[in-house]
Amino acid sequence: MTQPYDPYSVLLPVRTFALRSVDIADGETLGVAQRSSLFGRPGQDRSPHLAWDGHLAETQSFAVTCYDPDALTVSGFWHWAVFDIPASVNELPAGAGNASGERLPVGAKMLANDAGRHSYLGAAPEPGDAPHRYMFVVHALDTPTLDVATEATPSWLGFRLVAHALGRATLTPFFGIPA
């Protein structure tokens, strides 16, 4: 059996650390709150609670991303991208990815997702497609701020993250819609 593509496997290895959530679990199905209502399906587009620890003491900031490598595009789909999260922060509450950004830590910046919205966009795979993986990743970084404009794409942020990564923590839930 062919293993699904892991986009992080092609990057230079970095230290891993712990990531947990009261809303999502590795290898489990995403709940309705983390699914999208964009196409008239049940969903709330609410980013999950995320908490992390065990990162290197040298960490100067964090970024949080949500990426679907199984989206029916050649480049996957970025659902959420936040960076310049201060190193003193080790948790984001549920709903931190709302459009107002009011639940994000002071100084954190949120980019538009691949649908052009400055917020978390929940899971919305095509009906009948195999279940998609949603990779929620916390990136520990060696710089307090990244030179990334708020008009940049999540792909550009991902490029910059590679250059500054000290570690990564990942939770990968799934979601699919039967035909």
TrEMBL record:
Tell me which InterPro entries the record gives: PEBP, PEBP-like_sf, YbhB_YbcL/LppC-like
Q: Which domain of life is it from?
A: Bacteria
Q: Give the matching Gene3D superfamilies.
A: PEBP-like
Write out the similarity annotation: Belongs to the UPF0098 family.
Q: What is this protein called?
A: YbhB/YbcL family Raf kinase inhibitor-like protein
Q: Which organism is it from?
A: Streptomyces brasiliensis
Q: What is the lineage of its organism?
A: Bacteria, Bacillati, Actinomycetota, Actinomycetes, Kitasatosporales
